[in-house]
Design brief:
Layout lengths: L1 H66 L5 H22 L5 H20 L5 H17 L4
């Protein structure tokens, strides 16, 4: 009788351990899926903000060039830099690059600088819109990734 009890206990223990390992793998998978969904939402927000900022910066740079005003040279330069870094962020986030978080931090810095410069010319509607888009993009890109 003692041997049967030991055998049943060992059999039960092995089955329990197998089930426990499966449950842990499943739990890890579910947890990773939830993390992936959260990070994908963040990346989606970042991509949308970067695309909006890209469009606003390109428009602002083009219209500032048309004005042919020497005071807008820094604004044009920063808008171009901002547009380029935003598109680069979109590309990196789209392919889920390991370097996207570092690039997002840089994007936030450049967007903030661009917003500060464009706010100097907020009497122009395109500069005002660009500054707003840059502020939103900087806020999204400065999240802790």
């Amino acid at each position: 009788m003692k041997y049967i009890a030991v055998f049943l206990f060992e059999s039960f223990r092995k089955r329990f351990n197998r089930l426990l390992r499966k449950a842990l793998r499943l739990n890890r998978y579910i947890y990773n899926s939830q993390l992936m969904k959260k990070s994908m939402k963040k990346f989606k927000l970042a991509v949308e903000a970067c695309l909006a900022c890209f469009g606003a910066c390109e428009l602002c740079a083009a219209l500032c060039i048309e004005m042919n005003d020497k005071n807008h040279q820094r604004c044009i330069s920063l808008c171009r830099d901002c547009a380029e870094i935003c598109i680069l962020c979109v590309k990196f986030c789209s392919r889920n690059s390991t370097f996207s978080s570092g690039l997002m931090k840089l994007c936030a810095k450049i967007c903030t600088a661009c917003a500060l410069e464009c706010e100097k010319f907020s009497h122009h509607p395109h500069c005002k819109e660009c500054a707003e888009a840059c502020r939103k993009c900087a806020a999204v890109c400065s999240f802790k990734w």
